[in-house]
Specification:
There is one protein chain. The protein is built from ten helices and five strands.
C-alpha cells in the first residue's frame, strides 16, 4: 500500500535517458515524489495498468492523471515549481525554441545515436559514417556553447537537462575518440553536469520496486 498517496509516483529505469531527464526535471522542481525503479524485462502489473505502452517514465499524479512521455513529465514538474526558471517564464518564444531543439534531437539525433551505438556494439564497418551523422547535431551544440554558457543562454534551461542524457550516451560510444573530438565546449558542458551533485543524486541506485514493493521517497 502507498502510505504517501498525496505524492506523485514515477516508474523509472535508472539508465534510460528518457527516464533520466524526467528525474532531473523533478529534482530541479524540488517536488517530492515516490520512485519505483524497474527493469523492462519484469514490468510491474501496476505500471502496465496505468500505462499499457510499457515504457518509462510513467508518472501518476495524486489525482490519478497518468503522464507517459518524458518531456510531458518535465513540463508538468516545472509547471508545478520552477525555482531556476528553466522554462524562461514569460518568454514564449524562448520556450518554443527550446521545444524545437528538443524535438530535433528526440527524433533525428536519437535515430543517428542508436545507429552509432549499434555500429559499435556489432563492430560494423560503417561506424565512422554513423558517428559523422551524430556529429552534425553535436556541432550545432558546440556552436551554441561558443556563444553562451548553456545551450540557450548564459543560464540553464529545459533544453540543457532534456538533451543531457543523450549527449552522455554519445560520449560513451567511443570514449577515446570523444575525448579528442573537436567539441571542447560540449565536453565541458557535459563534464560539469556529470560531476554535479544534482547528477549524483538523480543517478543514485535504488532497490528495484518489485523486490518488496516499497516506494522510495525522493525529497528536494
Amino acid at each position: 500500500m502507498n502510505k504517501n498517496s498525496s505524492l506523485p509516483i514515477i516508474y523509472s529505469l535508472r539508465n534510460c535517458p528518457f527516464a533520466m531527464r524526467a528525474r532531473i526535471a523533478i529534482y530541479k522542481s524540488q517536488l517530492p515524489v515516490l520512485l519505483r525503479d524497474i527493469i523492462l524485462k519484469d514490468k510491474p502489473a501496476e505500471m502496465l495498468a496505468a500505462s499499457p505502452k510499457g515504457t518509462v517514465p510513467v508518472l501518476i499524479t495524486p489525482n490519478g492523471t497518468v503522464i507517459e512521455e518524458s518531456l510531458e513529465v518535465m513540463l508538468w514538474a516545472l509547471s508545478m515549481n520552477d525555482p531556476d526558471d528553466l522554462l524562461f517564464t514569460g518568454d514564449d518564444e524562448m520556450l518554443a525554441d527550446m521545444q524545437t531543439l528538443i524535438y530535433r534531437f528526440d527524433t533525428g539525433f536519437k535515430r543517428c545515436l542508436e545507429n552509432y551505438k549499434c555500429a559499435k556494439r556489432y563492430s560494423e564497418t560503417n561506424i565512422i559514417e554513423r558517428r559523422e551523422a551524430c556529429q552534425g547535431y553535436i556541432a550545432q551544440l558546440e556552436q551554441r556553447l561558443t556563444q553562451h554558457q548553456y545551450l540557450m543562454a548564459n543560464r540553464e534551461s529545459l533544453a540543457d537537462i532534456a538533451l543531457l542524457p543523450f549527449i552522455r550516451q554519445f560520449a560513451r560510444v567511443e570514449r577515446q575518440w570523444y575525448l579528442q573530438s573537436p567539441y571542447p565546449h560540449v565536453r565541458q558542458w557535459l563534464t560539469d553536469y556529470l560531476q554535479s551533485n544534482m547528477f549524483s543524486k538523480v543517478m543514485t541506485k535504488h532497490e528495484l520496486w518489485l523486490t518488496n514493493r516499497c516506494d522510495v521517497r525522493l525529497d528536494p
